[in-house]
Amino acid sequence: MAATTTPTPHLRAAGAVLPIAALQPRALHRRIDPQAGRALEKLGHAIEYLTDEFVNSGRPLAPHDPQLEAVQLLMAINREIYFSCPTVPGPVERVRAWLRMRGA
User: Fold this and answer.
1) I need a labelling partner for 7 at 20 to 30 A (CA). Which of 26, 45, 46, 79 fits?
2) Distance separating alpha carbons of residues 42 and 46, to the nearest angstrom
């Protein structure tokens, strides 16, 4: 049986061929303090509860459904809290900072 490989998707831009993975942003990690963690947990539970309740109700999607607007509001607050938490430098950034410090 012959093994097959899936080709890596590439993007041709300005005469260069780049692998798609090179264009995807690196995942950022965030330092979430206990207070923000509890808020994110509570918001997550509320979002999950409201969406489950909506799905199980069998109601059709409506553009101005108050329950869906509540979910969207909670999701916006959730994002606001999450993005207010500071990012943590990854291993590459830490090594670069160390090298810069050593070179100075």
Assistant:
1) 26
2) 6
d(CA 94, CA 76): 31
| Residue in the block written with tokens 């950022």 | 28
The continuous run of DSSP H or E covering 88 comes out as: strand 87-88
Q: Indicate the domain borders of the chain.
A: 34-57+65-83
* Reduced 3-state DSSP string for 38-81: HHHHHHHHHHHHHHHHHHHHCCCCCCCCHHHHHHHHHHHHHHHH
pLDDT tens for each residue of 24-82: 566 678 999 999 999 999 999 999 999 999 999 988 888 899 999 999 999 999 999 99
Distance between CA atoms of residues 83 and 86, nearest Å: 8
